[in-house]
Write a structure and sequence with these properties.
Helix content: over 70%
Number of strands: 0
Order of helices and strands: HHHHHHHHHHHHHHHHHHHH
Structural class: mainly alpha
Distance between the termini: 19 Å
Number of helices: 20
Strand content: under 5%
Shape: globular
Length: 316
């Protein structure tokens, strides 16, 4: 489902490494050359480029890029170069340094990844930060936020598509009861969200709508000014319809007064190889403007060029 263009005539990894090294040499940095290579290589190719660059030039490519690039373009390129598990570990760690809205970044990572990918991210967290992701979440959160986030991070969901419809109906009624009583931090509500498979949760939400004629996510939207309830809503969206969640993040990042480059960078870097095509479709449907046009209107220079290349709107 990747939107990244990896041309049939792609050069070898060694050629890519030498071209990147050349981009750092001489007067100034050749940002266009960097974009033409890195924005069009998939995760495995980028891993090989980084390994070969270190072996050839005795320096981590990340360090070379960090010395040569700056501002939002640098942040995007560095995030893109990281392997998906390293990137997720970094995003969660950064989120723990500034809570409130950053809680949603944790939810975003742990609820939109597969159980296997989340395990790899937690292993990368161990390797980089010499402690566990759960340890930091438990230490740096409190109250209802900890009650929800810690089991979300610690879970290992079943990935199969099997669904128990009897259970879905039962738990739909349970969710309705808890939400009707505004018991948003109820143990059973949190148990369902943090342990059931994504297919099972989706079936439960469908039963909820069939029985009560209401969309549970829209119900939670009515109390969206409450930060914890917003987190519950993000959890449900990320588990059942991540493309819609990411469309909303992009819309808010681009349409607000002053672009939220952090959110824009994060979503493009993490979803370019996953579901960007569907996100772009959602964005067009919701905003009547193509995502690439919205990005081009709100960003400039090398940052804009890299973003557009990653969302698959620019050929080499």
């Amino acid at each position: 489902m990747s939107t990244i263009i990896v041309p049939a005539h792609a050069t070898s990894i060694t050629d890519d490494v030498e071209q990147l090294h050349k981009a750092f040499s001489g007067w100034g940095t050749n940002e266009k050359l960097i974009i033409s290579i890195l924005a069009h290589r998939d995760a495995e190719q980028r891993k090989q480029i980084r390994e070969t660059y270190a072996a050839t030039h005795n320096e981590d490519l990340l360090k070379s890029l960090d010395k040569e690039l700056s501002n939002d373009f640098e942040k995007l390129v560095l995030l893109w170069i990281l392997s998906p598990p390293e990137r997720d570990a970094y995003l969660v760690n950064e989120a723990t340094k500034r809570w409130t809205k950053s809680n949603q970044v944790v939810v975003e990572v742990v609820c939109t990844r597969s159980s296997h990918d989340l395990l790899l991210a937690k292993q990368a967290y161990h390797a980089r930060y010499k402690k566990s992701m759960e340890e930091d979440i438990a230490y740096l959160t409190k109250g209802d936020f900890r009650k929800l986030l810690l089991p979300l991070v610690a879970t290992c969901r079943y990935e199969g598509s099997e669904v128990n419809m009897t259970l879905a109906k039962t738990e739909a009624k349970l969710l309705h009861e808890k939400l009707d009583d505004k018991c948003y931090n109820d143990d059973d509500l949190i148990r369902i969200l943090t342990t059931r498979s994504k297919f099972q949760i989706n079936a439960t939400l469908n039963q909820y709508k069939n029985i009560y004629g209401e969309d549970i996510i829209k119900e939670l939207e009515e109390d969206s000014k409450d930060e914890y309830i917003s987190l519950l809503r993000a959890t449900l969206e990320c588990l059942t319809y991540p493309e819609k969640y990411f469309e909303r993040v992009l819309r808010l990042a681009i349409n607000k007064t002053g672009t939220d480059e952090g959110a824009l960078t994060r979503v493009v870097a993490t979803r370019a190889e996953v579901d960007m095509k569907v996100i772009k479709e959602e964005y067009l449907k919701r905003n009547s403007v193509p995502l690439d046009k919205a990005i081009a209107k709100d960003t400039r220079g090398d940052y804009e060029d890299m973003l557009l290349a990653l969302i698959g709107c620019v050929d080499e």
